[in-house]
Design brief:
Two copies of one chain form a homodimer. Chain A is of the alpha/beta class and 307 residues long. Chain A is 36% helix and 22% strand. Chain A is built from nine helices and 14 strands. In chain A, a hairpin with a 4-residue loop joins strand 1 (10-15) and strand 2 (20-25). The longest helix of chain A is centred in the last third of the chain and has 19 residues, at 231-249. The first copy, chain A, is globular. The A-B interface holds A 86, 118-120, 122-125, 153, 168-172, 174-175, 178-179, 182-184, 210-215, 217-219, 221-223, 225-227, 229, 242, 245-246, 248-250 and B 86, 118-120, 122-125, 153, 168-172, 174-175, 178-179, 182-184, 210-215, 217-219, 221-223, 225-227, 229, 242, 245-246, 248-250.
């Protein structure tokens, strides 16, 4: 490693359903080192979380020093390491004093897990995204508008006066994955390749007639069988239809508002293209940076508790 | 067997993507015996079709007799036993003279495969359902209206003057299966149990606001996590949302028309409930009976070619 063990002040962890990511942190918000492992929450029994974490961060721990480990994500769910009960929106994103302490055997770590947020009506939940939102509000404390976090389960979050006012989740990424890898459409969908016009046409079709999505899914298969629809075109069109019906449903979120996108460049770019076509201004923020800012804010607010 | 080999006049076969079904037939349209095997088209290479068929029907063949075997379904696709090129709608359902002869090694069978039907715009295809439609038109030659065939890929077929005028396919059954067994919703969806009110409410929600389906899918998961939504209720609601958005898109088919449903009782009953709620009259026909009537009509029209 290119840094000294004594530079390590804390460890940031984003522990999701399928992946475990950790960042070795010094005094600044830039990580000294990034780590990841495929040991997501869903793969672990309750007593396997500590060993999985130590396997990843063990080389960065020192004798006689207790390092705070600040975690967000599904690690705090009922099936996780220790349940961190949801906050209820409207509320500000969680800070460190609201964390749940996980009991550990290793004396060199103190593990804190951030709660997720639930919304009673319409029923919705998030775990992990609230920390990215917290990070965004660290960077832009006066932000008033909508944050969209595209991914497997895309979240739309309405922010006002530093609070999460309401939010809504869409299974768009998971639907795309199921349809393109597990359904009859898998024979017609390319693993890569892109046709921007086909994507935007799909968005437009779905936004103007959302019900047509139900009909047009098999239409992709049929067009590839009898009308030589290319696999790249099919992939773009499917993506457009699914993001289009999401945008039709999320209209109350984005209409007349500025939208900040937090997500991987490729998928966030697709949302930006579709929203810009609707005359909506978008800005992009980096997922990892927002996560680290959010975890750092939590860490800073609980520093008296770190031992 | 409770019948004599000399009673066997022909064999009817419905050979789909995942299953092979065969019926040993005498002179009447009631089968002497029903057979099935999990050897669907997708599981077989081209030279494996004849052995799979013989493994199933071999015990019913006699020396020195050539038995006609009339097949419909994916067995006639490009990846099937022998490609039976699509007819193009508008057209009448196929008759025996339009069959493709599969080459066989066994001298005791003569195998005929019915073509599917394609529609150029909007692009769509069917293989197998056209034979059920043919059977329905055997029973009701003057039928003018819409036939709906619910299943993995539900078909809506507009019939006029004995012809398939247009049709449209929906992936509703496959979507339900993917979402309830392969997605995050699998944790919230019962394998059985039913709540009729939740189903009809889902239909109504999706028909009145089709785009809301995108939002309400994850809502099922969230409601089961934080609002004690029962697994049976979740299953019914998911089914209602998916059938509801299909009905919204298929409105030009069913609006102001009588609808004949051909499908398994449970799923056809769901469509009937939803359509009746919209003031649409429905009737039900038995899938196997329609398939056999359609295959029998094809057999009768090619009897001169049976050797």
């Amino acid at each position: 490693m290119e840094f000294s063990p004594k530079d390590i002040k804390w460890i940031a962890v984003d522990w999701g359903t399928t992946n475990l990511r950790a960042w070795v942190m010094g005094t600044e918000n830039e990580p000294l080192h990034s780590l990841d492992a495929p040991h997501g929450m869903a793969t672990l029994g309750r007593d396997e979380f500590e060993p999985a974490l130590i396997a990843l961060i063990g080389p960065y721990l020192s004798a006689n020093v207790v390092i705070p480990v600040i975690c967000c994500g599904m690690v705090g769910s009922r099936q996780g390491w220790a349940e961190a009960s949801y906050l209820t929106s409207p509320c500000a994103p969680p800070i460190g004093t609201l964390t749940t302490r996980a009991s550990v055997k290793n004396p060199r770590i103190a593990v804190f897990i951030l709660p997720g947020i639930k919304q009673i009506k319409p029923a919705d939940v998030m775990r992990g995204e609230e920390t990215q939102v917290a990070g965004y509000l660290q960077q832009y404390p006066d932000f008033d508008g909508v944050i969209c976090l595209p991914g497997t389960h895309t979240k739309w979050v309405h922010i006002s006066a530093g609070e999460i006012v309401s939010f809504q989740t869409f299974m768009t990424g998971e639907l795309f994955s199921l349809l393109s890898y597990k359904s009859i459409l898998r024979h017609s969908i390319a693993a890569d390749g892109w046709d921007s016009a086909a994507y935007l046409e799909g968005v437009e079709d779905a936004m103007s007639r959302p019900q047509s999505v139900a009909a047009q899914l098999f239409g992709i298969r049929a067009a590839s069988l009898i009308a030589d629809l290319s696999c790249a075109n099919a992939r773009s069109r499917l993506s457009g239809l699914l993001i289009g019906i999401e945008l039709a449903a999320a209209r109350p979120y984005w209409l007349g508002r500025n939208v900040a996108l937090i997500g991987a460049d490729a998928i966030a770019g697709l949302y930006a293209d579709a929203l810009n076509q609707q005359g909506v201004n978008t800005s992009m923020a980096d997922t990892q940076k927002m996560t680290l800012l959010g975890l750092a804010a939590a860490k800073n607010s609980l520093k008296d508790l770190a031992n």
